[in-house]
């Protein structure tokens, strides 16, 4: 899973004196410039990025990026050396990745919500229908749903799921036949962006408003859409194994001990939602001097990577063997996060690095699990708007419209592209090319050999 990310101030102002000779006076009047009430420098300075400036191989007009309207919109997807994009005329186009040559186009009045799966592109029309087009350009089917503001499409096995906030629809991937469509209460439910299917049970997460708003998971029969059970204050599952769902419980305002901390993981029967017990992972924080209880993110969240459960414990990161749980067991490994409490975990490990977003700057940061060393990937000369990691490369779009490619392992800048737009979407990659979504253009860049 890739996911999805400085500001500097101020320089001191010198006081200037100017001598003005006056005729017939025999003296000069000295005038002092007004002194600033507050003047400071943060000691930082901007260094130019030393990397070759290259030009895109080609660019193509697409629907403008608008993160305010559709935060996760997919203007384009890249697979099998091709790019499939919604162009500026709201049509789906297929482009050859290395040359940008248009292979075919399809439809009109399409929206920037699409996926590629099993050699098929699934997308939405402005009128609320879902369509399926083969990679060859041949239309497979279209099905009306009435989802004019659809936010996500997923394909799981033989089913395509479409979500629109509190609504969900299931469509047969081969025929386009509507299996079912459901809606939760629109006044209290707001759909989030995670969905999974296991053993005939579909699980989806929402924010649900009560006296307070918390995440909730609902389980549905994947064949009929019938709700099987729900669990308030419960996060999207860490995993499901042997018919048991494992999810972190949100205990905010229920267990706010600022010193004796813990993460609680609930266990539910997948089919019925019946409780199968719970686990607790405990740690101790220093006495809280400011009286503020910090919860979530780096101050009490967890994710599972294989058999390793990583628990973010504020000043420390701890890992446990998830499948050999013992109450009050000690961590298998532990790393210091002291001084980095402003980080937000991205719940991703790549090349032996745990990734974070810096809450204060928006930049990308990683910690080497082998040594505990923190690495900053936001040493650019302007704030980071978008950062993506593929293989051995880190790709960063800045607020000044400049895009940089870095070597993941050495941090050295490899290339720079002047894009000219301050708006960036997720970077795409297929083969030896990356595709930069920026403003109303899609730019293709051939990767240097070191990043392929």
Automatic annotation (TrEMBL):
Gene3D superfamilies: YVTN repeat-like/Quinoprotein amine dehydrogenase. Coiled coil: none annotated. One of its GO terms (molecular function) is protein serine/threonine kinase activity. Residues 127-374 form the Pyrrolo-quinoline quinone repeat domain. SUPFAM superfamilies: Quinoprotein alcohol dehydrogenase-like (SSF50998). Keywords: Kinase, Serine/threonine-protein kinase, Transferase. It comes from the Bacteria. PANTHER family: CELL SURFACE PROTEIN, OUTER MEMBRANE PROTEIN ASSEMBLY FACTOR BAMB. This is Serine/threonine protein kinase. It comes from Paenibacillus terrae.
